[in-house]
Amino acid sequence: MSTETLSFQTEAKKLLHLMINSLYSNREVFLRELISNASDAVDKLRFEALENDELLGEDTELGIAIDFDEEAATITVADNGIGMTRDEIIENLGTIAKSGTEEFLKQLTGDKKADATLIGQFGVGFYSTFMVSDEVEVLTRRAGTDVGTKWTSSGEEGFTVEDAEASRGTSVTLKLKEDAKEYLSSYRLREIVRRYSDHIACPVTMQSLDKDKQDERDTVNTATALWSRSRSDISEDEYKEFYKHISHDFEDPIAWSHNRVEGRLEYTSLLYIPKRAPFDLYNPDAERGLKLYVQRVFILDDAETFLPMYLRWVKGVVDSNDLPLNVSREMLQEHKAVETIRNALARRVLDRLQKVATDEPDAYGEFWDHFGNVLKEGTVPMNPNRETLIKLLRFTSTQDSVSSGEEHAPQRISLKDYIERAPEDQEFIYFVVGDNEQSARNSPHLEVFLSQGIEVLVFGDPIDAWMMSHLDEFEGKKFQDITRSSLDLPENKEEEEETAERYGDVDEPLLERIKAVLGDEVESVRKSKRLVDSPACLVLGEHDLDLHMRRVLEASGQKVPRSKPSLEINSTHSLVEHLSQEQDEARFEDLVHLLHEQAVLADGTYPIEAGTHVKRVNRLLTELLA
Ligand code: ADP
To answer: Ligand 1 mean position to 152 CA, how many Å?
Structure first.
């Protein structure tokens, strides 16, 4: 086939542009990226050779070789791994296959520092070579094929591909930029390999440093699978570098958990908790899952069955001694060992998170900002680790009042904190759900709680309503939605007597008169115990669908029956007092409707008939001002 000149896909071009304009101060990571790709290629060949050992041929010593040429100012990183066909190389190095790339790129701001962290979440891989090179040449041949391919590019313009002689695997040659010649040094390169790639399981070799042994090569890295070594032999930095290798994240992880399990099942796992959420956390097609090895042999990337969905952001490796080497993605879903391992791994992650929460509450707070809403997905009753998970949930509450003008990081509490702070005889864990935190905090339902100093958890995210529909109780205390009818308030006798004395009781006849005006719009009208400043509010029945939950369902296209709330009246409010004395029937009706509409507005969950409302308000205003 002839030479083709192609251009990079638009998204790839944008990323390349960012790389070339060196977002990173840390350019030496190009070597880590190349070694990481080469090591994956070796893993893949070893895996395919399990089925077809002809792929290996005579060349069975798999490894990675680094060489450089001072005069030509080039560095070459070569592997004898799986290699690429012409089509594969066009696809792999010319496009970015990740779903959501376009949206991701839109988030880039042009501010170098901010973009560098964003792009770190994305992973840069091969394109990082352009930080140090004017030109990159890739020579590759797919195992099992005869024709090789040469790919060359000098960056943003595009690339060419042509047929070429090549040995099995891939060799990448960088023509270094003038200002990157510092890398043309054996010492420097060895140091970079040891710093970033020591954990790579296959040998990385370089020409001997000894002048008399120029034909010999040294293995520069430790070259044993990191997770198979014992914990005490692995340094923090090694753990961190391994994380970067498997996650393509540029930032350090918050924590990790490395364990070997022996007994009925035998496996080793190394699980990492990232600092920040990936850009595609909520993209259902995003890659997720662990790297699966069976007896040190790499089998699969993104083995998603080893972690529950709510932990889909965990990165790591699981190496099993029980699964067959020819295990496939489909088989994994049915294999008995997998479910046991999944539950155990989830437990490990949660335990590790608990330790972070206890030892480093600030780090946990930051983690919660990124992953909290995903963790909430794990509150479903079928989750075997639910109890452990619930302890990791964090909440904001009415006690987290922001003093005016003060910069203040949101304070988060656990359910345990809530219970510890509540009076001993408080039976319930109270909560309120709003469209957002602000509207939840303004709910009239909160008034009596605020006036009595009872703490209420405040929810402002759609997932919260969903989550609370699954949660019944925590450590013997039931959750109670304060907008529901069966509100059991802590006794407050003294105050009740006092208000009764001041205002007298609201007459039954008044309640009936109001109900007659509202008719079917409300379930009932009754006297409220929960209001202090507002004249009225809406209250849902115990089994009515939560209004926020209703919205979520409606937004997803489901038909939901309309629930009919009750109207509660604040008998101590002067408006209500006026109402009871109102003789003019038309005006009474206007006032009642207004009261009801206000309650609906304060709830903020369904629209009121705006035209009628405005006319009513204008009518009353005109009378008032006449
Ligand atoms: P990533 O490694 O994150 O997928 P890269 O840009 O580094 O992204 O590489 C893109 C793809 O090119 C890889 O996923 C792989 O399929 C292919 N590739 C890169 N280097 C090699 C190599 N040395 N051998 C075989 N394939 C490679």
So the answer is: 15
Work out the end-to-end distance of the chain between its first and last CA atoms, rounded to an integer number of angstroms: 92
CB contact set of 517 (below 8 Å; sequence gap of 6+): 588, 589, 592, 593
Distance 50 CA to ligand 1 centre (A): 21
| Number of residues in the chain | 626
Convert the pLDDT of each residue in 445-468 to its tens digit: 898 899 888 999 999 888 898 899
Distance separating alpha carbons of residues 149 and 170, to the nearest angstrom: 10
What are residue 267's phi and psi, to 5 degrees? Answer: -160, 160
Which among 114, 109, 128, 97 has a CA at the least distance from the CA of 15?
A: 128
- pLDDT digit string (tens) for 554-597? 777 878 777 788 899 988 888 888 888 888 999 999 999 999 99
Q: Extract the tokens encoding 578.
A: 């006026």
Q: Please tell me the distance between residue 169's alpha carbon and the centre of ligand 1 in angstroms.
A: 12
- Residue whose Cα lies nearest atom 14 of ligand 1: it is 92
- Rounded Cα distance between 522 and 331, Å, is 55
Q: Which helix (DSSP H) or strand (DSSP E) does residue 121 occupy? A: helix 112-122
What pTM was computed for the model?
0.78
Tokens of 481: 């939605």
Residue 203: CB within 6 Å of ligand 1?
no
Question: What Å distances lie between residue 603 and 437, 480, 524, 537, CA to CA?
Answer: 13, 17, 17, 8
15-32 per-residue burial string, b: 16 or more CB within 10 A, e: under 16: bbebbeebbbeebbbbbb
How far, in Å, is the centroid of ligand 1 from the Cα of 423? 59
Q: CB-based burial of residue 233 (10 Å sphere; 0-12 exposed, 13-18 middle, 19+ buried)?
A: exposed
Q: How far does CA 552 lie from the centroid of its chain?
A: 20
Residues 6+ apart with CB under 8 A from 207: 67, 186, 214, 216, 217, 218
Q: How far apart are CA 551 and CA 458, in angstroms?
A: 18
Mutation to probe ligand 1, out of 31, 88, 92, 249 (largest number of atoms < 8 A from CB): 92
Q: pLDDT tens digit string along 13-34? A: 888 887 777 556 678 889 988 9
For residue 595, give every residue at least 6 positions away whose Cβ sits within 8 Å of its Cβ, in sequence order, or none: 514, 535, 536, 567, 569, 575, 579
> Alpha carbon 438 to chain centroid distance?
23
123 close to ligand 1 (CB < 6 Angstrom): yes
The strand pair at 217-219 and 148-153 is best described as: unpaired
- Which has the closest alpha carbon to 356: 397, 407, 394? 394
CA 120-122-128 angle, to 5 degrees, is: 65
Q: Whose CA is nearest to atom 4 of ligand 1?
A: 125
